[in-house]
Amino acid sequence: MKITTTYSQHPKVKPDFNNLGFGKYFTDHMFIANYNLEKGWYNPRVVPYAPLELNPAASVLHYGQALFEGMKAFKQQNGNIALFRPDFNWRRLTDGAERLCMKSPPKELFFEGIQAVVNADKDWIPTTKNAALYIRPTLIATEGFLGVRPSHEYIFYVILSPVSSYYTEGTAPVKIWVEKDFLRAAPGGLGATKAAANYAGSLMAASIAKEKGFAQVLWLDIQKEYVEEVGTMNVFFVFKDEIVTPALGGTILGGNVRDSAITLLKSWGKNVVERKIKINEVLHASQSGELLEMFGTGTAAVISPVGELTSADWSIKINQNQVGPVSSKLFEALTSIQYGVSEDRFSWITTL
Description:
This protein is of the alpha+beta class and 352 residues long. It has helices at 59-63, 86-99, 107-120, 196-211, 256-267, 279-288, 325-338; strands spanning 4-5, 29-36, 40-48, 66-68, 71-75, 81-84, 132-141, 153-163, 174-178, 216-220, 227-230, 234-239, 243-245, 272-274, 291-298, 302-310, 315-317, 349-351.
């Protein structure tokens, strides 16, 4: 399908790339494609960033058929524009769409749409340290009807936002609250998909945690016994003899950076284990000196060290609230590949 482009006649004033924050600013254009049962996918286009027109009875508004991805475009040191493992994001979107009974865009449409809108707004890609152009591919159900069934119409769209650090702490260690009242996901549910509903259900716990001075929450399983993930990140624990991350079992959203971190750590000869891990194991390891580091991984934060872990019953400091050597090395290795500073040994980079 040929993608048409309509350029904005009223380009925005770009923000200060040295003071971006996360998700505050949006570029001049967006990509949109439509789907219905009769036509399939049609009318792929880059248009000026603007509100979407939706039927008030659209399925996304009533039955929550909404799915999204998070990616970044990087300006590499040689001037190339690069994406980091976009295949991973397309596969995860496709898997999530199947779980939500949605129609996923084909791979070519996904990639060509992203490429078209990123190229249209390439001047928005920051060149400042640790900044990038965040890419939000989104799939929503748009058919207007009332009745619980999958929609027959969808919109796939992509918006862009220049960003720096996700957390206000930047790359400094964050404080995390261990959530024991609310639940993020249950077996058989939507935990392994990047569905909008997952985030709606997490907002209350995250808001309460932030009122207490914490950056995010650590979610536990349905029995409140095993570690699952942090609100916006997968989580790793560095013990003396192994590095552990919770095994994916249908309730955890497996991330691109999580998968990449495991690959890098194994290539360095580290003993990386994906298994179930009890929160009490983490507490006891901290008390015995076996817990050396804890960090989160995610597209937005890349690597985020955790300096404090607190529950209603206890609180521990991790690595004296300092950035540890493993998380520091991972952050440097990943960002060096993303920005084209070091060799892409794993063929993770796609150049636009």
